[in-house]
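call fold(seq) -> C-alpha cells
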Amino acid sequence: MRTVVQRVSSASVTIDGKVKSSIGVGLLVLAGFEEADTSEDLEWMSGKLASLRIFNDENGLMNLSVRDVAGDLLVVSQFTLHALTKKGNRPSFIRAAKPEVAIPLYEKFVLLLEKELGKPVGTGEFGADMKVSLLNDGPVTIIIDSKNRE
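ret:
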C-alpha cells in the first residue's frame, strides 16, 4: 500500500460537478493498493496516519498529529500511485490491485481510519472521474509505503 499524504487547510473531491466530500484542516490521503496488500498493511498505515506528527505546535514545530489537532481526513483511491515507469514513456499499472481486490481494501482502510480518529472520514468514489481540490498547508507532502515501512 502506498499513500501520498498532504497536510491541508482544506480539501474536497467533486464527481460529476457535485462535491462528494470536503474537509477543513486535516490530511488529504491519496491511497493506492496492490494485490499483495493485507490487513496488516491497512492497520499499520491507518495507525501511522492517525499518529503522524506533521501539524505545528505552539512553537511552530511539527509535533502534533491530525488526532491532536482534531483534524479531518479525506481519503481518495488512486491506482496510479503504483505506476511503473522504468520502460518506455507509457506507465504500466500492472502492480495496482484490480477493483475486486482494491475496493474491499479501500473500504476497510476507511473504516480503520474512522476507528483511529473516532469520527467519519471523507471519501471519494472508487473508479470515478474525480476532481480533487486542496489548499496544501506548508506545503507538507509525505509519501508512505507500507511494504518499506517508510
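The chain has one domain: 2-145.
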